[in-house]
């Protein structure tokens, strides 16, 4: 299971750090990712980190968002900075392992202008 947390209401220009705690899987063996879905829009890719710790980002978010992982805590993070109203969305974490793929429940991020 994946449990995302850390969302909330933040002012434009602010920062938030999302966490995704994984249970029932070994994080060190999983590719992990964050996606988001804004109201009325399709779910879109945000960032991913592979088992070697290499990260990739949506071109539009590169430089403002940072994905990281702590295998000892079985947790993946998404540090978000310089937030704007377009970042308002439900953020989901996602895992990809040799035994399957899984989505966590989302966490709402609302950026007020």
Radius of gyration: 13 Å
Say how many strands there are: 11
Separation, N- and C-terminal Cα atoms: 34 Å
- Mean pLDDT, nearest integer? 95
Alpha-beta classification: mainly beta
Strand content: over 45%
Question: What is the element string, with H for helices and E for strands?
Answer: EEEEEEEEEEE
Low-confidence stretches: none
Describe the structure.
Strands 2, 4, 5, 6, 9, 10 and 11 form a seven-stranded mixed β-sheet that branches. This protein has 113 residues and is mainly beta. The radius of gyration is 13 Å and the shape is globular. A hairpin with a 5-residue loop joins β5 (44-49) and β6 (55-57). The chain is 0% helix and 55% strand.
Please summarize what this structure is.
This protein is mostly beta strands.
Question: Descriptors for this entry?
Answer:
single chain, 113 residues, mainly beta, four-stranded antiparallel sheet, 11 strands, 55% strand
Give me the secondary-structure topology.
Blueprint: E1 2-5, E2 8-11, E3 16-22, E4 31-37, E5 44-49, E6 55-57, E7 65-70, E8 75-80, E9 89-97, E10 100-103, E11 107-112
